[in-house]
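Review box. Two proteins, two foldings.
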Amino acid sequence: MSIRARGRSRRRMLLISAALGGLSVLLGACSSGNAASTSSGPASASINLAPFEKALQADYKGHFTAPPTTAPPHKKGVNLWIISCGQASEGCSQPVANAKEAAGALGWKATVFDGNFGIGDAYNNGIRQAIADHAQAIITIGVNCNQAKSGYQAAKAAGIVVVGADSYDCSDPAVHDGANVMSATVKFTPAFPSAADTSRERGIAKADWIIVHTKGHAQVINTDFAGLTGGVYENQGFVSELAKCKTCKIVKTITFSPADTSDGTLKQEWASALAQFPNANAGVIISDGIVIQDGMAQAIQSAGRTKTFSLVSGEGYAPNVAMIRAQNGEDAVTPFDSNWLAWGAVDTVIRLLDHQPAVYEGMGVQVVDRTHNLPAAGQQYNSPVNYQALYKKAWGVS
């Protein structure tokens, strides 16, 4: 059954995709349709789980390092603009608020522009307004090169420092739109330096969790958010890691675009897959917002499979954490702390304004489930590192 991607308005598509994707609102080339994919191997064969168990223990510990302990002296009175992927999305507004807080700690003026998911050329307009305001630096939260290329080029021509936070530059293979236009993108860790590497690692961690928790006999309903740059990389990581388990199998892959989350199409495809594959015991999705908005958890509940089917998702928002705790339709997430990313973006600006290179900021992926790293009731996931205090100390403002 093909996923229909026609007849949706551009406004509705962008609003829904950004609201669900959170910080990962990085729209690449959209595609739609279904494809079944399998990782072959006899179900009765045995597999050595030790490598996956070892990997999962590292995932539980977290793939992050400490923030930098020193920084060059920061310039005074910097005029900073922060371009948000869309303030209606928590995944955009939270890191924006943190970037503004970090700038405030330095005594900088920080202006927030709501990119409103790119509707009406908003991303380009925001960058142009920053240029007109004589901004010395711009941070873009979740705005790809190809979503605001003319604005990025204008800022570069004006000599403005532009830092992308989870924003993919033009030379990224999944964007493939010419030479870079950003001054830098925020670096994560030495092991997973880029947003692409980190997204790929999120997919790998999901596979590790599923392989171990199904004892090497995973029957997976996979979802591939092919309309999202981060989704492309996450799916690559998941598929490649699961393929190492020769007794595991992807029984169905649902490929969807942002538009397919807006009208119940994805919800219908998911429910149909659950019915079509009653022996499927695991599934993956990129975003916690989609789990709730598109009724994925509800479908698992309605099918009476909350104890036999494990769903692994994304950010660790409070409602999703509650479901993980109750084992009621979602079982694990593989987040990275996007608020830490925002502080790292400000740290990167400090360095570039001093003509120093970007450094590794330290944020990375960590697995959360019922018995590991679960936040307190009513709370969302935050990394265990007190990065705000560490940054302030490095900046000399603590």
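Next protein.
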Amino acid sequence: MLAPAGQSAPDISFVIPVRDDATRLERCLRSIRHNEYPAERVEVIVVDNGSADRSVAVAQLAGALVIRAPHEPVAQLRNIGAAASHGRVLAFVDADHVLGRGWIRVALEGFRDDPPAGAVGSLCRAPEDGTWVQRAYDRLRARHGGRQPVEWLGAGNMAVSRLAFEIVGGFDTRLETCEDVDLCKRLRAARYTLLGDDRLINVHLGDPATLGALFRAEVWRGRSNLAVSFRRPVTLRELPSAISPIVQLAGLALAPLALLFAGTNALIVAVLCLLPSAGVPAFRAARMSRHLVPLTARGVADNAVVAFVYDLARACALVAFAGHEVRRR
């Protein structure tokens, strides 16, 4: 979208969807306002999804443009905000994220490369005062050190070239989740580079704080995982994420049948069916423990529990319905 007549386009436009999250939205907007970058070169658009709290008032008080779009999926909220923006770079963050002071400057560096990146971003971080579940969940994130090309960037901490975003058609509004994975696939298919830069500090205040919250969040998030994972281009690195829930679900389904119909060897067959379901989270927990400093028995146990709940939820997502309201509860 072009800037209004007589005004130059801002360098970057933040698009922030929100629903009933006034307190964390205020922190998010404050972190943008306190960035080490000229405020007049930054545009902030908050897309409200029908909030009943003070979210709209908080956004207006911070000087953001507020667009009301109730009862829309998050992909549509992001597209609506992008369509109303004027910046040459679109920054997609969520209301429960807090940015480091140098975030804007670092993000814009990637679009000055030759050739420029299609998108830049980084994996989020857990709150410093987070629960043990949040600390272990943070170790699930396979971080790449430094600044290098990556295959995927999360929409909570992503900046995209407006040109690239418009060429690939924005977020797929048919998806309730994994819309960022799908966008990254289409950017790569269009030959754009995705650049990961761990200087893009972003703390996700909304990381699940309990095992129950983790289970609900991953059941919700996993609903679109399978369909999106097999969209082109497909890489070998993505296949385990798509296949492991199928393997686990198959093991969980076959074990009870083995106990009923496998006769004298029923217990042995049931255990064999469950081995893949136990092996997937065990492997994941081992990978998480590589990032555990110092390595402690408590930390390893925390990793194992969180990995088991994570993978169980992703398996259940294949057969369960879990809308955004379930995740929020």
